[in-house]
């Protein structure tokens, strides 16, 4: 049996709201949110790690590239647990890099580097870790997207209302880059 907690984000969560408590979460039972066509599951975040890192998964079906963005204060890791994901990154000198990551592959995105990804195979899972001096951004997914109790991908993509793009990203160290183009995007 897994313990449930009430947090500032949810009335029911398997994640304690304060640091210093060991805990265990069964597969898929973290705090879940739908955003675009993906299911994000947070297992550890700022509250548990004193804002040093977060740990989450992103599951999705083959689809469109997610919007280009960057994190001014956050480093991000992409580790592929299943399927395949194409990662697009632009380094600080403006050189673009693009790599198809498959099971067991790892991608690192430094802070301030524009990036995006596209899930290339159905049933893909990204295991993500983010860390930086500004804290963590794991609550971005449920604030821009929508919290869910479902363990599956959204039936219909969840596209946030336009006003959310003007407020939520900045609060969670995310800067969207609408004009960003990628060489291998097509």
UniProtKB/TrEMBL annotation:
InterPro entries hit by this protein: Cupin_2, QDO-like, RmlC-like_jellyroll, RmlC_Cupin_sf
Organism this protein belongs to: Streptomyces nitrosporeus
Domain Cupin type-2: residue ranges: 61-119
Coiled-coil portions: none
Protein name according to UniProt: Cupin domain-containing protein
Pfam families given in the database record: Cupin_2
Domain of life of the source: Bacteria
SUPFAM superfamilies: RmlC-like cupins
